[in-house]
Amino acid sequence: MKINIVSITRANGSATSHIKQIREKLEEFDFKKSGINGNCKYCSYINTGRIGGCAITTKPCGVCGEDMTFSNTCTDAICKRCAEKNQLCRHCGGDIELKNRRGKRLIEP
């Protein structure tokens, strides 16, 4: 690609727009007290641009091992039941409140 005034202007506009989106997401992140739909705040408000390929995907739950089916390749780490029972994020599998757990806090299937 040749670099010229048009390509520089386009790149500047794209970067500025992306920075604005990140700032808006961070403001929303700081304002919210918790995540939504069984996800942590990060997966609910920051990591929202997940893209999955068009394929029916089956994956085992990271806790109980039960098969989960998704309409694309962007899958959750654990099933809804295990996420609720263990206070974990469905998508990334981290603590729902993003707190590090101490001791041997059991994960129940």
Q: What is the approximate shape?
A: flat
Most strands sheet: 2 strands, antiparallel
Order of helices and strands: HHEEH
The low-pLDDT segments are none
Strand content: 5-15%
Which class of secondary structure composition applies to the elements?
mainly alpha
Spatial strand sequence of the major β-sheet: 1-2
Whole-angstrom Rg? 19 Å
Q: Alpha-carbon distance between the termini?
A: 53 Å
Count of the domains: 2
Q: Provide mean pLDDT, rounded.
A: 88
User: Helix coverage percent of residues?
Assistant: 25-40%
Query: Looking at the chains present, what oligomeric state does this protein adopt?
Result: single chain
Q: What is the number of helices?
A: 3
Question: Strand tally, please?
Answer: 2
Note the main attributes of this structure:
single chain; mainly alpha; 2 domains; two-stranded antiparallel sheet; 7% strand
Entry summary:
With 109 residues, the protein is mainly alpha-helical. Helices cover 37% and strands 7% of the residues.
How are the secondary structure elements laid out?
Layout (H helix, E strand, L loop, with lengths): L4 H27 L9 H6 L10 E4 L6 E4 L9 H7 L23
Antiparallel strand pairs: 1-2
